[in-house]
Amino acid sequence: MNQWIYPLAVFLGGACFGVLSTFVKLAYGEGFVLAEVSGSQFIAGTLLIWLLLLFTKKKKISVKRFLFIALSGIPMGLTGIFYYQSLQTLEASLAIIFLFQFVWIGTLLEYLIDHKKPTNQKLIAIFILLIGSILAAGVLTNGFSNLSLSGVAWGLLSACSFSAFAYISGTVGRELPPIQRSAIFALGGLLITMVIFPPVFLFDLQTVTAIAPYGLFLGLFGVMLPPLLFAIGMPHVGAGLGTILTSSELPVALFMSLVFLGENLQLVQWIGVCIIIVGIIFGNFPVSKRKERSITETSEKLNAS
Q1: Among 36, 80, 195, 215, which lies 20 to 30 A Cα-Cα from 143?
Q2: pTM of the predicted model as reported, rounded to 2 decimal places
Q3: Of 170, 155, 136, whose CA–CA distance to 243 is shortest?
Q4: Is the pLDDT reported for residue 274 higher than 60?
Q5: Burial of 268 by CB count in 10 Å (0-12 exposed, 13-18 middle, 19+ buried)?
Q6: Which family does it belong to (predicted)?
């Protein structure tokens, strides 16, 4: 297989997440509510990925292990619920900015759980990311007039849950084939969604028929395809390049919101988006030990002064 297939798979996996917010907004415009959108997505997506699992290699595990991995998929379901909740009061182009804070929240999570101290390069990247986020959110030009505080809170919660799932998915169930592990995670996401939003809409045939196209689309691009594409590409491109490639989610989400929703970003917001991408690339760009030592020494001198 050509080597360019692997980074392309990761890039497309990120892009899949980027299309979700636009179609959630369109579903809201059709009169559907959060419970119907989230429920239909996870029902459809879980069915699709389990159907795919029938044709792939599987490994036998105990019931206890199966339940543990399924429970580890809860943050996956919560991410969709929190993110889609934020889309009720925020434009899609803004909600994605707050979701993208998972980049620095994930670093904080590693420090709190694994006591993994971030490098100076990573800290600088986080600072760049935060500056870009302030510009991209339009705070400097519009103040907080276009921001819903509840929407911001839900968006940040989605970033926290996504960071938790990213951490868990890198540590839990690694002995399983990627598709099998993703299918069990999806089942956990489905279960927590059903607990929070009992699928009463399934008893209304008219609603099921109307929401089905959205559910299939969101399930395909939000639950099934990303794990498959990441399973193909991530082992070959590595975490650093993988993080850069998955940032395709941001420009795709913005482009979709412009074309299909008619949302508009000011020049300073586009500059902020570019700064965010630069921060992600900088934070994951390989730095030699000599350069890292130089950065550390410079930082110590500044602190001393």
Answers
A1: 80
A2: 0.85
A3: 170
A4: yes
A5: middle
A6: Belongs to the EamA transporter family.
**Helical (H) or strand (E) element with 291:** helix 289-304
Is the pLDDT confidence value at 75 over 60?
yes
Q: How many residues does the chain have?
A: 305
Nearest-5° angle of CA 248, CA 235, CA 95? Answer: 25
As given in the structure block, the two tokens for residue 233 are: 């590409």
Torsion of CA 37, 42, 45, 47, to 10 degrees: -130
Closest by CA to 164, choosing from 57, 71, 92, is 71
- Looking at residue 287, its pLDDT comes to 59
Distance CA 187, CA 81 (A): 15
Return d(Cα 297, Cα 291) in angstroms, integer. Answer: 10
Query: For residue 109, what are the CA distances in angstroms to 102, 167, 202?
Result: 10, 8, 37
Torsion angles phi and psi, residue 174, rounded to 5: -70, -15
Tell me how far CA of residue 273 lies from CA of 19, 101, 207, 224, 251, in angstroms.
Answer: 17, 12, 37, 27, 8
- pLDDT tens digit string along 20-63? 999 999 999 999 999 999 999 999 999 999 999 998 889 999 99
Closest CA to 119 of 304, 305, 288: 288
What CA–CA distance (Å, rounded) separates 76 from 104? 18
Quote the mean pLDDT of the chain: 86
- d(CA 64, CA 151) in angstroms, rounded, equals 37
Whether residue 15 contacts residue 248, with contact meaning beta carbons closer than 8 Å, is answered with: yes
pLDDT, tens digit, for every residue of 80-139? 999 999 999 998 988 988 998 887 888 888 888 888 888 888 888 889 888 988 888 877
Distance CA 157, CA 176 (A): 29
Percentage with pLDDT > 90 across the chain: 42
